[in-house]
Amino acid sequence: MRDIIINGVKIRPGQNIQLDINIARLPTHTLIDLPVFIYRSKVDGPVLLVSGGLHGDEINGIDAVKRMITDNMLKPKRGTVVAIPLINVYGFLSTSRTFPDGRDLNRSFPGSKKGSLASQIAHILTNEILPNIDMGIDFHTGGRMLSNYPQVRADFKDEKSVALAKAFGAPFIINSGLIDKSFRKEAYKKGKPILVYEGGESMRLDELVVKEAIEGTQRLMHHLQMKDQVHEPRESIVMAASTWERAKVSGIFNPTVQYGEKVKKGQMLAKITDPYGRVKVPVKSPYDGFVICLNNLPVVNAGDALIHIGKVE
Ligand SMILES: [Zn+2]
Description:
By secondary structure, the protein is an alpha+beta fold. It has helices at residues 59-70, 89-93, 117-129, 159-168, 183-189, 207-223, and strands spanning 4-6, 9-11, 16-25, 31-40, 47-52, 80-84, 135-142, 146-154, 172-175, 194-201, 237-239, 241-246, 251-255, 262-263, 268-273, 280-284, 289-295, 299-300, 305-311. It folds into 2 domains: 5-237, Zn peptidases (Aminopeptidase), CATH 3.40.630.10; 240-311, CATH 2.40.50.100. Strand 15 and strand 16 form a beta hairpin. Helix 1 (59-70) crosses helix 6 and helix 4 crosses helix 6. It is globular, with a radius of gyration of 20 Å. Bound molecules: zinc ion (ZN). Zinc ion binds at residues 54-55, 58, 140.
């Protein structure tokens, strides 16, 4: 069996351990750790990364990974699960997507030992985690007030990722290219597909999103023969293209659809009004599809992203 070595610690077959990787110190000199949970079966098999909180204000994924740890769902019957519930401790503490200097960890890969804080943590993930894993699922949410219906993003040019996305079985699978300097792209370059799960919005817990994250992970583990079947497979709705409907005028945004809802071409999705009843501008769907993300802000400016529609072929 291959060696799994993280932070200088060799993980033996049959071993379940928590490692705390020292990251840095806060200005108070409080030590910041990156806790990593490793569950290794005695039987050889794939190594799956399950991670959340790469953006520190995206809480749904953190909660999902935590629940899978506490409910003992990640111990595989073969292979290994590497679980990191919270990657960006700094962002979590300051309820921010980024690091204190404004850097986005997901634009900092592969990172460097002497770079910014985000770059240093990217370096740890690149050198301690990526060499040990075969594939992964990384949990994200939409931005502030932008609520994604549970979906897995994969680059449709990469067949391995698409197959894993189908096994995960989220309600939606959306085509999404690799972003430069992202964790997903860095892993892809090393031949390791990482799925990005998007669900709900930052700084808001969404039970449906957490439940879908947990069930999808269990399906993925079953697909990888790491676990007996817990949930029935599900055929995701696959969408190769998507567009944002933006506000044509500023005003009060009144959506008449919910996230996840099926919509028809030309259907009225929302209206934008002014506070005095003089303005009423409809927002219509450009094609048949599904609402994959909805802006929950009640007041918008012209140009704001309102509704993200996934296109059904
Ligand atoms: Zn994110």
